[in-house]
Every structure is written in structure tokens, then in C-alpha cells.
Amino acid sequence: MRIAGVNLPLNKHAVIALTHVYGIGRVSAENILQRAGIAPDRKISELNDEEAHAIREIIAESYKVEGQARGEQQLAVKRLMDIGCYRGLRHRRSLPVRGQRTSTNARTRKGKRKTVAGKKKAAKK
């Protein structure tokens, strides 16, 4: 079954399968299923066309998903960089934004280590 351009895994419960859509987390998935009147523990393969259509309509009218959500996220980060605030500068330099230490760790954000030449040892006479 496709929802918002994403193929949902048929063998998973509906509440878990919906989280495969970018912009829908566990709580949002539970709310969508509650509004559609579908039990969260039903598998996606068990849903009929009417139930699938109800889920699609709820998502379309109430949630920003996939490309729209990604675009908004990128615009929010770009705005921070454009106004030149501290968080924007951290984004621009690819450093941690939320106050983590960078002397050690922060490897995920900084990327692979860049080797720096050490001091040469003095030659013995």
C-alpha cells in the first residue's frame, strides 16, 4: 500500500508502518488511526480500500509529510543561517548546534578526522 509516495511494509502493524512516512512519528500515527477508526494493532495487509483512503485523506488534510516536511526543515535551517544567529553559524560550520562539547567527540557532525602533522622530534647529536 502506498501513502504519500511511500510503500508501507504490509507485514507490520499499521501504527509502525505509518512511521515509515517522513513527518509521521509514533504519536501522529496513533492519532491518524484513531481518527480513521482503525485499531493500531491491525496489519497494513488487513486494511481494505476504504480504510486506506480514510488514512490518506487524514494525512493530506492535517499533516505535512515527505517533500513538504523536508522542505520546511531546510528552509528553517537556511533562515537561521541567513540571519546570522549562533545556531545558524553552527549549522554553517557543520558543528553541533545544541551546546555539545567539540574538543572531543562530535565526530558525527564534524565528519572523518583530518590528520594534522605533529611536532618533529629533535635529532640527537
TrEMBL record:
Short name of any one Pfam family annotated for the protein: Ribosomal_S13
The record's family statement is: Belongs to the universal ribosomal protein uS13 family.
Q: Name one GO biological process term.
A: translation
- Assembly state and interactors? Part of the 30S ribosomal subunit. Forms a loose heterodimer with protein S19. Forms two bridges to the 50S subunit in the 70S ribosome.
Ranges of Basic residues compositional bias? 107-125
The record's PANTHER family line, in alphabetical order, gives:
30S RIBOSOMAL PROTEIN S13/40S RIBOSOMAL PROTEIN S18, SMALL RIBOSOMAL SUBUNIT PROTEIN US13M
The record's listing under InterPro entries reads: Rbsml_uS13_C, Ribosomal_uS13, Ribosomal_uS13-like_H2TH, Ribosomal_uS13_bac-type, Ribosomal_uS13_CS
Question: Which residue stretches belong to region Disordered?
Answer: 94-125
Record protein name field: Small ribosomal subunit protein uS13
Gene Ontology CC: one annotated term: small ribosomal subunit
Q: Which UniProt keywords apply?
A: Ribonucleoprotein, Ribosomal protein, RNA-binding, rRNA-binding, tRNA-binding
- GO molecular function, a single term: rRNA binding
The gene name on file is rpsM
Provide the function of this protein.
Answer: Located at the top of the head of the 30S subunit, it contacts several helices of the 16S rRNA. In the 70S ribosome it contacts the 23S rRNA (bridge B1a) and protein L5 of the 50S subunit (bridge B1b), connecting the 2 subunits; these bridges are implicated in subunit movement. Contacts the tRNAs in the A and P-sites.
